[in-house]
TrEMBL record, chain A:
Keyword Coiled coil on entry: no
Keyword list, A-Z: Cell membrane, Membrane, Transmembrane, Transmembrane helix
GO CC terms of this entry: plasma membrane
Name of the protein this chain belongs to: Putative ABC transport system permease protein
UniProtKB/TrEMBL annotation, chain B:
Molecular-function GO terms, alphabetical: ATP binding; ATP hydrolysis activity; transmembrane transporter activity
Protein name: Putative ABC transport system ATP-binding protein
Positions of the ABC transporter domain: 9-233
Taxonomic superkingdom: Bacteria
Annotated family: Belongs to the ABC transporter superfamily. Macrolide exporter (TC 3.A.1.122) family.
Alphabetic keyword roster: ATP-binding, Nucleotide-binding, Transport
One cellular-component annotation, GO: transmembrane transporter complex
SUPFAM superfamilies named among the record's database cross-references: P-loop containing nucleoside triphosphate hydrolases
């Protein structure tokens, strides 16, 4: 008979079997959970990307110190992308005898392609707008205050009289988030006609593009394959500043982690159900084999049945995933204003693929071994028992789990930590289960009869008990990581941006201005003042070899060696810095020393003991590398790639870089201060901080949504796994009832059994989740001083043990009611 | 209860019917019988005659639709399932056609089960003695899958006798065994029955086995057709 028809017929006969239902249910849940998570994750990632695109004003761009070749824009237009050209440069504006250095953006009227340009008119009404028409200019509040102008006035910029059409409230930054001076936006035509962009100007030219993701992707590939002008750089959402990137990486790591753990939970449930199915089918397969069915055909029939079950389950899972994702989106979409609203199908379909992989990985081993059942097994059960022992094929689920971890985490470190933590939990749970069972047998003779019966019940299913404890332990670890560790890490992450984070930076402060400036700031109510010396130099040689003659594999090295470098020095290791190799400076080293950030170490392939030579002003400094530092660039403190020892560096010509926190609403006072110290550049990062807070809020809100879904899926998968294992107890219950066991005895026995299982799982999961959390916090998410919330973890483990017990009791409720007549009917 | 009842089992006009898809189905109809203490009693009949249902009722695994069953003086029809379970634990032993040993338990642990239900602290020692009495002490650590059919049934018999039941119910105890092994098992069953002064009620369609019982009844379509053997005690 056709194998497919036979498979379908088998399924029609067997689909009511509890383990097949569990298997199908687990698959539906797995695909739904994975699909919901992946769909929401994709949308959240799009949201984050869109936020980043809003920040740079386009989906992608290129910036260059020279005029950009036309073919970049031509190609983009050809690909159907929208194009915005602009240039930024410093220029001095004049009005009423006053002058002010402005950071000018000259743009066409397509600006901005993404995000919004917020303008305030003369009546104080705020509205969105585009780049100004020729003859017009927008000035920000600081510029208006500094020049004592109002919207509607005229000012002179680049030799042209321009009309102030609006106050600039907020603008996408074109990749430059920190403006050094008050800002102005003018027309590109005006700037070109005024000769502001000619040869010798300090303008940075920019081309920003926006459009369909595929077209953006194509253009990006093309642009990367062509030769860009010297000094030109691609601007991508991913590259917008370190802090953004950090937010982005952490968000996607959380999301990947969530999806991954859901898949593993499903795998555990599927494995238990498949094992159960294989056990039930053993005698049938033995009969088929005895009747002459070849092994291959038996295997084909088993696979066919499984597929016939899996296909509808996958379809239901995908449908459920899309439906739930859409419903969740409707609730959560307020978090993601401006994110594309199209429901992506890809992630749910990919989830179905992963679901199939999980099914294959976790269900095939028992079924493959089942097909090998000897025909002799029709006569002797003992033959069938032998084939279910552990063998190499059972490494398949382990490999599938590892492959999933690898593919889903996208990070070797994340994958490694998770795999090691989960394996540790598995081993610990197994050992603990063995130990407790051993102990149970020792204490059982003196215990209460019902309790002893429960312990005996656990002990007499030693193998299964260990497997269940291990699976539950791993599942609970996953749940605890998701439910406790991830949110607490999010809080840790958020608390890294305290409300008094420095929001102003001051450049070019001279030594003789330090005291007065500090006092002036104190009068304004500023706090968190921090000053660091700043020398500007150039790297000229490594170990005596001129830098120009050296070759480095990292292309960034060339760029950095051409640049002016910012050098600073400090006697003590600054916060957010960690020495990972070598030692921090001794008070009076014989030779100048330098501490190097790890990015620089990798870029220039530096080793401890190398000597770096810098030209600073008229002099030269040779400094030996004595330590490498890991710097948390997301800390919003002033950090340096290169730190020199103060004993040798303090004689270098330098200015000071200051950062401080000033409550909002002090623009007028800051403008006054700026005029009192005309040489200083005051940088306002409040706006940037606002946006980062917003993005962190958005992302953490979304992650919590995703967590809630995973948690639900995880709990359901756990329940399914428990009920699958509970089914085989019925026969035992019938026998015990026949021998005179009371229902209460069976219930207490089941309660003891599941409570002990839950306790083992809870204990190992608490330890596992705490360990994994601590490790993840340090190594992957770089949250300093992260301590997992042990109290919440322990409480959750206790609750989990109770829940496991209740789930177990619920799952065995029917079992305790089994009629003892069942045994007589069975013969 | 006061005094010892005359019959260990006293069945009066018992009927059992169930609701089937095509209406009421009478499985047993007006069955009456008495079994004295220490007696061996066989219920024979063709498949579907109601033997197993009757055995289930006699052992208190189920309740009759009508009539009365007294086991050691206890009216089973008036007891709830929990009370009947208590009674079974104290008075009843079982031997099944399919042995019904728990596969994950060793022979010794299987025999310990009824004692564990009683909370007996000497369960292991007593189980060992019971296994010794069926000649399987050396195999006490073996699991059912490692034992032959005859050995499994001997373990089941040890389990049935271990807690000293007053009555042993056996449902086709040789049904899954070859003739020679079956004979050995029956010999063992009757020997233990004699040594322990246990009442034996067995259901079989094996005429030779039934012949070894002191009394026999035959069921046909739910009714008792004939009594044979020694007169009522």
């Amino acid at each position: 008979m056709n194998l497919l028809r036979l498979s379908l017929r088998t399924l029609r006969r067997e689909w009511r079997l509890p383990e097949l239902r569990t298997l199908a249910g687990s698959l539906v849940l797995a695909v739904a959970a994975l699909g919901v998570v992946a769909t929401l994750s994709t949308r959240v990632e799009r949201g984050v990307l869109a936020s980043a695109a809003e920040l740079i004003g386009g989906d992608i761009g290129v910036s260059s110190p020279q005029r950009l070749p036309d073919d970049l824009a031509t190609r983009a237009t050809h690909d159907g992308l929208k194009v915005n050209r602009s240039a930024s440069f410093p220029s001095v504006a004049f009005a009423h005898g006053r002058s002010q250095l402005l950071d000018v953006l000259a743009t066409d009227t397509a600006y901005p392609l993404r995000g919004t340009l917020e303008l305030r008119d003369a009546h104080g009404h705020t509205q969105t707008g585009h780049g100004p028409a020729a003859g017009n200019v927008y000035l920000d509040h600081r510029a208006l205050v500094a020049l004592q102008l109002q919207v509607g006035d005229m000012l002179q910029l680049g030799g042209r009289e321009l009309h102030i059409a609006a106050e600039l409230v907020r603008q996408p930054d074109g990749g430059q988030l920190i403006a050094l001076a008050p800002r102005a936006v003018m027309s590109l035509t005006d700037a070109e006609q005024a000769g502001l962009l000619g040869i010798g100007s300090r303008a940075r030219h920019r081309l920003l593009l926006a459009g369909a993701p595929a077209a953006v992707h194509d253009w990006r590939d093309w642009a990367q394959s062509t030769t860009l002008p010297q000094g030109a750089q691609l601007i991508t959402p991913e590259q917008t500043r370190q802090r953004m990137r950090s937010a982005f990486d952490r968000a996607s790591a959380f999301l990947r982690l969530t999806a991954l753990l859901s898949a593993l939970l499903a795998g555990v449930a599927i494995a238990l159900a498949a094992q159960q199915y294989a056990r039930r089918k053993t005698s049938e397969v033995a009969l088929l084999r005895a009747l002459g069915t070849p092994r291959r055909r038996v295997f084909g029939l088993l696979i066919g049945t499984l597929l016939a079950l899996a296909v509808p389950a996958l379809i239901v899972g995908v449908a459920l995933a899309l439906g739930l994702a859409q419903a969740a989106w409707l609730f959560a979409s307020t978090l993601f204003a401006g994110v594309p609203t199209v429901l992506p199908w890809g992630p749910a379909l990919a989830a179905a693929g992963i679901g199939l992989a999980v099914l294959a990985g976790f269900a095939l081993p028992p079924l493959a071994r089942l097909a090998e059942v000897s025909p002799v097994a029709v006569f002797r059960d003992s033959v069938t028992r032998r084939v279910r022992r552990f063998d190499g094929l059972y490494l398949v689920p382990v490999l599938v789990a590892l492959a999933l971890i690898w593919s889903q985490s996208g990070s070797a470190r994340l994958a490694g930590i998770l795999a090691i933590s989960l394996s540790g939990v598995a081993v610990a749970a197994a050992l603990l289960a063995w130990g407790l069972l051993w102990l149970a047998r020792r204490v059982a003779p003196g215990a209460h009869p019902a309790l002893r019966l429960g312990l005996a019940a656990l002990a007499r299913r030693r193998g299964l008990s260990v497997i269940q404890a291990t699976a539950l332990g791993m599942g609970l670890t996953a749940l605890l990581v998701l439910a406790i560790i991830a949110p607490s890490m999010l809080d840790g992450w958020r608390s890294e941006l305290p409300s008094n984070t420095p929001n102003w930076f001051v450049l070019n402060l001279q030594t003789n201005q330090r005291d007065d400036f500090s006092k002036a700031l104190a009068r304004l109510g500023a706090d968190q003042l921090n000053m660091l010396p700043l020398a500007v130099g150039k790297l000229v040689a490594i170990d005596g070899h001129p830098i120009d003659g050296l070759h480095f594999n990292d292309p960034r090295a060339k760029d950095w060696s051409d640049r002016q470098l910012r050098l600073s020095w400090a006697g003590t290791l600054p916060p957010a810095n960690r020495v990972i190799a070598g030692h921090w400076f001794t008070p009076h080293p014989a030779q100048a020393e330098v501490s190097v950030d790890t990015m620089w170490r990798d870029m220039f392939a530096l080793k401890l003991g190398d000597t770096l030579s810098f030209d600073v002003g008229e002099g030269r400094l040779d400094a030996r590398v004595t330590s490498f530092r890991q710097v948390d660039w997301s800390s919003f403190r002033v950090n340096f790639f290169l730190l020199l020892d103060p004993a040798h560096a303090s004689a270098l010509p330098h200015t000071w870089l200051a950062s401080f926190h000033l409550p909002r609403g002090h623009a007028t006072q800051v403008a006054t201060l700026s005029r009192a110290y005309p040489n200083l550049s005051l940088v306002d990062v409040d706006d940037l901080l606002d946006r980062i807070h917003q993005i962190v809020d958005r992302v953490s809100g979304a992650v919590r949504w995703v967590l809630a879904f995973s948690l639900l899926a995880g709990a359901l998968v756990l329940a399914a796994a428990l009920s699958a294992s509970a089914a085989e107890r019925r026969h035992e219950a019938a026998l015990l009832r026949t021998l005179g066991a009371r229902r209460g005895q069976l219930r207490i026995a089941a309660a003891c059994e599941f409570a002990l299982l839950g306790l083992i799982a809870g204990l190992t999961a608490t330890a596992g989740a705490a360990g994994a959390g601590w490790w993840l916090g340090r190594q992957v998410f770089h949250i300093e001083h992260y301590v997992p919330p042990l109290g919440s973890l322990a409480l959750s483990a206790l609750i989990a043990a109770v829940v496991v017990m209740l789930l177990g009791l619920a799952g065995t409720r029917k079992v305790t009611r089994t009629s003892p007549m069942r045994l007589l009917r069975e013969g | 209860m006061s005094g010892t009842p005359r019959f260990l089992l006293d069945v009066r006009d018992v009927s059992k019917s169930v609701q089937g898809p095509e209406g009421r189905l009478d499985i047993l109809d007006g069955v009456s019988l008495q079994v004295a203490t220490g007696e061996s009693f066989a219920i024979v009949g063709a498949s579907g005659s109601g033997k197993t249902t009757l055995l289930g009722l006699l052992a208190g695994l189920d309740t009759p639709s009508a009539g009365s069953i007294r086991l050691d003086g206890h009216a089973l029809e008036n007891m709830d399932e929990e009370a009947r379970a208590d009674l079974r634990r104290q008075l009843v032993g079982f031997v099944f056609q399919s042995f019904h040993l728990l596969p994950a338990l060793s022979a010794e642990e299987n025999v310990m089960l009824p004692l564990e239900l009683e909370g007996d602290r000497l369960a292991r020692t007593r189980a060992r003695e019971a296994l010794a009495s069926v000649g399987l002490e050396a195999r006490r650590r073996h699991y059912p899958a490692q034992l032959s059919g005859g050995e499994q049934q001997r373990v089941a018999i040890a389990r049935a006798f271990v807690h000293g039941p007053r009555v042993l119910f056996a449902d086709e105890p040789t049904g899954n065994l070859d003739q020679r092994t079956g004979h050995h098992i029956i010999d063992l069953l009757f020997a233990l029955n004699r040594d322990h002064h246990t009442t034996l009620v067995l259901v079989t369609h094996d005429a030779q086995l039934a012949e070894r019982c002191v009394r026999r009844v035959e069921l046909e379509e739910g009714r008792l057709r004939a009594h044979s053997g020694e007169a009522d005690a």
